[in-house]
Amino acid sequence: MFKYKYALLLFFVSLLTVSCSTDNAQDDDSVPGIDKTANLQGLGDSASHLLSDAEFTSMNIEIVYVNGFQPNQAALANFKTFLEERTFKPDGINISLRAVASSGKAPFSIEEIVEIEDETRTIYNAGDEIAVYIYIADGKSEKDEENKLTLGSAFRNTSMVLYGKTIEDFASRPNAPIESDIEAAVLNHEFGHLFGLVDIGTEPQSDHKDDDNKGHCNVEDCLMQASIEFGSGIIDEIEGGRIPELGEHCIRDLQAAGGR
């Protein structure tokens, strides 16, 4: 039983390993009266804007979820705390939720997620408020393999997706972490990529890049670690209901880019 539980939790960590390391989408979509340009940039391009109050003093996060996949309130509370601890937003961070019908496109390519964002996103940067879009899908990523699944991907400077069906299915397995813990870990991990971690928009202040996994950290126990060794350091945290946190090297990177 112990070996099975250990392998299962290592597998959970491997899901974070594949999230958004290669997904980066840009386009020139425009709508009369709405300037989307600032929200259609590359992954990590708005890291300092998300972290500091130099240009944007507040953050507005729009979570669009497919009916039946509303995120857990405990996960959202942890997510908001994570953002408040790492950013300077004196006018606050607002998170709004909105349900939509299924697109019927699962399993999803990142291009299809981009199309869904174009159809369902309603909030863009305005004045001194920066806007972020999060989509919670009712299916899996087309990149999934038998022993490697994708829980989420950050793909534009202010855009990310969680694969809600994958998270739900994994949480239902015997001895898996509870769903709210998985959701919180993925939300925080993917937003770490929007923050430009690791070396995808935010310059590293020390040598902690994982050379084998682009955009990830090689420091044990860090939220942004992607290697399989990360599992041995996170098991107790997940089992105890504690969400993994950023390590000091990643925090220093964010502080140098304007964050806390």
Per CATH, the architecture is 3-Layer(aba) Sandwich
Shape: globular
Unreliable residue stretches: 1-22, 227-236
Spatial arrangement of strands, main beta sheet: 2-1-3-5-4
CATH homologous group name: Collagenase (Catalytic Domain)
Q: Could you estimate the helical fraction of the residues in percent? A: 25-40%
H-E string:
HHEHEHEEEHHHH
Multimer state: single chain
Question: How would a crystallographer describe the biggest sheet?
Answer: 5 strands, mixed
Count the E strands.
Answer: 5
Keywords: Signal
Protein name: Membrane metalloprotease
Question: What's the layout of helices and strands?
Answer:
Elements: H1 2-18, H2 47-51, E1 58-66, H3 73-86, E2 93-100, H4 110-120, E3 129-137, E4 152-156, E5 159-163, H5 164-171, H6 179-194, H7 230-239, H8 248-256
Parallel strand pairs: 1-2, 1-3, 3-5
Antiparallel strand pairs: 4-5
Helix pairs in contact: 1-7, 3-6
